[in-house]
Specification:
- With about 375 residues, this protein is an alpha/beta fold.
- It has two domains: about 220 residues, Isopropylmalate Dehydrogenase (3-Layer(aba) Sandwich), CATH 3.40.718.10; about 140 residues, Isopropylmalate Dehydrogenase, CATH 3.40.718.
- It has twelve helices and 14 strands.
- The strands form three sheets. Strands 2-1-3-12-11-4-5-10-8-9 form a ten-stranded mixed sheet, with helices on both faces.
- A hairpin with a 6-residue loop joins strand 6 and strand 7.
- Helix 1 packs across helix 10 and helix 6 packs across helix 7.
- It starts with a strand and ends in a 7-residue tail after the last helix.
- The structure holds 3-isopropylmalic acid and magnesium ion (MG).
- Magnesium ion binds next to helix 9.
């Protein structure tokens, strides 16, 4: 059986286009293997949008995203836009599309690969078997709060941002966190700064209220500074980490290092379920656009390929099939092929394109126990 699905492909800037190319290769292999069929349409975002349309989120790109079943994104940002007005910096394209599509739930799975445990800067016994899901609120908090401004000049200059959360905003992300915990090891740690921040005090109260609907889930609360420390001290204690936008941004970069490289960490950003059962969704690596490496066929495409796998699972229901992408990645890493960020003794250094080719080829060769 073949089904058509519409995917908006937004490669973005820096290393975005070259890692996206690898994800598309793997998607082609997936189509061939499982007889599925996807309609891909590319559009500019971030710096690419500024170059083509003068804005980081061109209207046509947003329209395409709204009309697609899922968005597969690369990354945004480049040094050459550093001096632009902050309102039209490339990062705004990402923040605007998250907001416009209502993508409030950001899922960042942090899973260790056995063959990479020596790559992490932490001791192997600390990171072996790590499997954490960071559930980050993505459309609220200090990223979007008003008022925000820079005012005055010289010694009178000041700047401020607003960290604001409403009850419904906390409740809906808390529910995502608890549902996620239910489908996993049933432990949820909610991270806040309730000893200092009013927004965190509300966060904690709402999480406790929602917890009553999930008696099977063991819930605890941790201050964000302690959570940052515990992630390094004993990361295996975590199953689901539920947290607000900025804490999630920081903790997910930290957590990625447990896997050895930020280049291994995918993400899914989901909106509310609509009446037709569908939800807006955008899939992107958790890392940035690394412009210093752009165009060098050097960086790790795994986070982008894993983001593709998350898309196939969450937006299109190909759970078992997508798991074969993970298997293909693991196989290629086990065979010793590595990009520079995850290199180790005795491994073979390969470029972005070769790693992508090898993962696509490995996927095709895996015995296909499932078909669609
Ligand atoms: C991320 C990134 C973004 C964020 C930037 C590029 C705006 O760091 O997705 O984690 O802060 O959310
Ligand atoms: Mg970040």
């Amino acid at each position: 059986m073949s089904t058509s699905h519409k995917i908006a492909v937004l490669p973005g800037d820096g290393i975005g286009p070259e890692i996206m190319e690898q994800a598309v290769k793997v998607l082609k292999a997936f189509e061939q293997k499982f007889g599925a069929s996807f309609e891909l349409t590319s559009a500019p975002i971030g710096g690419a949008g500024i170059d083509s349309d003068g804005v980081p989120l061109p209207e046509g790109t947003l329209k395409l995203a709204q009309e697609s079943d899922a968005v597969l994104m690369g990354s945004v940002g480049d040094f050459k836009y550093d001096n632009l007005d902050p309102k039209i910096r490339p990062e705004q394209g990402l923040l605007q599309i998250r907001k416009a599509l209502g993508l409030y739930a950001n899922l960042r799975p942090v899973k260790g690969y056995k063959c990479l445990e020596h790559v992490s800067t932490l001791k192997p016994e600390v990171v072996t078997g790590i499997d954490v899901m960071v559930v980050r609120e993505l459309t609220g908090g200090i990223y979007f709060g008003q008022p925000r401004a820079r005012e005055g000049s010289g010694k009178d200059e000041k700047a401020f941002d607003t960290l604001v959360y409403s009850q419904p905003e906390i409740e809906r992300i808390a529910r995502v966190g608890f549902e996620m915990a239910l489908s996993r090891r049933k432990q949820l740690v909610s991270v806040d700064k309730a000893n200092v921040l009013a927004s965190s005090q509300l966060w904690r109260d709402v999480v406790n209220a929602v917890a009553k609907d999930y008696p099977q889930v063991e819930v605890s609360h941790m201050y964000v500074d302690n959570a940052a420390m515990q992630l390094i001290l004993n990361p295996k204690q975590f199953d689901v980490i539920l947290t607000e936008n900025m804490f999630g941004d920081i903790l997910s970069d930290e957590a990625s290092m447990l896997t050895g490289s930020l280049g291994m960490l995918p993400s899914a950003s989901l909106g509310e379920k609509k009446a037709n059962g569908k939800r807006n969704a955008l899939y992107e690596p958790s890392h940035g656009s690394a412009p210093q490496f752009a165009g060098q066929n050097k960086v790790n495409p795994v986070a982008q390929i894993l983001s593709l796998a998350l898309m196939l699972e969450y937006s299109f229901g190909y759970k078992q099939e997508a798991a074969q992408i993970d298997q293909a990645i693991e196989q290629v890493l086990n065979e010793g092929y590595r990009t520079f960020d995850i290199m180790g003794e005795g491994a073979t250094l390969v470029g972005t394109a070769e790693l992508g080719d090898r993962i696509a080829a490995a996927l095709l060769k895996l015995p296909s126990a499932v078909s669609v």
